[in-house]
Design brief:
5-stranded antiparallel β-sheet, alpha+beta, 170 residues
């Protein structure tokens, strides 16, 4: 239920390698797929006896001098994180109810809104914080966009703000 840190995991790559070891899953489970999204290590596991799948999540964090650490959860806990790959939900699984079913719906809704939102393009208008901005040009990788407000004042809209902005008709 808590976090596990170790100086043996000096880097995030060391921790990810540890989390994907076959010994972690024992004789009854098989790791099918795994990926890292930000500080989330998502994995799809198959139960060998039944052929059913379930999704696991390792929250990863640096403990600085204590090395990297993780906290493991599975879908039955209804994790707060919803950036799980959509393909993992398509694997055959036993019908789940409660937290797992609610979590799966939140993951689907998250991906649906990401698909519905247009990619940023020069000349597009967005609304953030009650103000409208025209996207001028990218500020650089993960730095957002240079924008102009309705009064033609120049700003830089950080990527995190742009991700939460709503499209506005010009």
């Amino acid at each position: 239920m808590g976090w596990l840190f170790s100086p043996r995991w000096a880097t995030r790559a060391d921790l990810v390698q540890h989390l994907r070891r076959p010994e972690r899953f024992g004789d009854r489970l098989q790791l099918v797929r795994a990926c890292v999204t930000g500080s989330h290590h998502w994995y799809l596991v198959r139960e060998l006896a039944t052929g059913q799948h379930w999704i696991g999540l390792d929250l990863m964090q640096s403990g600085r001098a204590d090395g990297w650490g993780y906290k493991d959860l599975d879908e039955s806990a209804g994790p707060c994180a919803i950036d799980c790959p959509l393909a993992y939900l398509a694997a055959p699984h036993a019908e789940r109810d409660g937290y797992a079913a609610q979590w799966r719906e939140r993951v689907r809704a998250y991906h649906a809104t990401r698909k519905a939102k247009p990619a940023p393009a020069a000349g597009a208008w967005v609304r953030f914080g009650g103000r409208d901005y025209c996207l001028v040009r990218p500020a650089g990788p993960r730095k957002g966009w240079h924008v102009l407000d309705r009064q033609a004042c120049a700003w830089r809209l950080p990527a995190a703000y742009l991700a939460r902005a709503e499209p506005v008709p010009a």
